[in-house]
Amino acid sequence: MKREEVKFEYDVFENSEELTESDAALMDAARKVTTKAYAPYSKFLVGAVAKLVNGETVSGTNQENASYPVGICAERVLLSAASMLYTDVAIDTIAITYHNLNGESSKPVSPCGMCRQALKEYEERTGQPIRLILAGMTGKVFIIERSTQLLPFSFGGADMK
Ligand SMILES: [Zn+2]
User: Fold this and answer.
1) CA 148/CA 96 separation, integer angstroms
2) Which listed residue, 28, 43, 49, 125, has the most CB atoms within 10 A of its CB?
3) What domain range includes position 146?
4) Do 32 and 47 touch, CB atoms closer than 8 A?
5) Distance in Å, CA 39 to ligand 1 centroid
């Protein structure tokens, strides 16, 4: 027997002002788009904005439903929109943040498990890692170089070959 280890590194910035101009602009766009979330139940408005390799941007916000499981996260709204609007165009970076109507929080948001799986599929189908910029309403910003780092031991199409 031997013990293996999984670890990954990510960058931590003290605040959005430390980001490069283009990353800061993408995070700013994600903050603005939270106003388009439909989250009357959680009151947790998530905004995600992607920069594609063709220079275009695509947004997503969470869309809740009175039948809770019907709701969909901002990240998967974004991926679905990107797939329709710019089919087969890879995503370079996605900025994700939120506006919590329940109170201020500086904890960077991170994609849920289902969205991590969806991001993995998108990376694989376009053949390019997706960078994530994650932030709270204020404070620290995390940059993760590829979304699949958040999903070790993941299951994908290659596992069915
Ligand atoms: Zn999710």
Assistant:
1) 16
2) 49
3) 11-150
4) yes
5) 13
- Has residue 104 been placed in a domain? yes
Residue 160 lies in a domain: no
Residue 103 domain-assigned (yes or no): yes
pLDDT tens for 135-147 read: 999 999 999 999 9
Is 75 tagged catalytic? yes
Q: What is the pLDDT of residue 83?
A: 98
Of all helices (H) and strands (E), which one includes residue 143? strand 141-144
Encode pLDDT of 79-135 as tens digits: 999 999 999 999 999 999 999 999 999 999 999 999 999 999 999 999 999 999 999
Strand residue runs (E) in 53-127: 57-61, 91-100
Q: How many Å lie between the centroid of ligand 1 and the Cα of residue 140?
A: 21
CA of 1 to the centre of ligand 1 (A): 36
pLDDT digits 0-9 by tens, 29-82:
999 999 999 999 999 999 999 999 999 999 999 999 999 999 999 999 999 999
Strand order in the sheet with 44-52: 11-13, 141-144, 131-135, 91-100, 44-52, 57-61
**Rounded to whole angstroms, what are the CA distances from 3 to 131, 151, 155?**
29, 19, 21
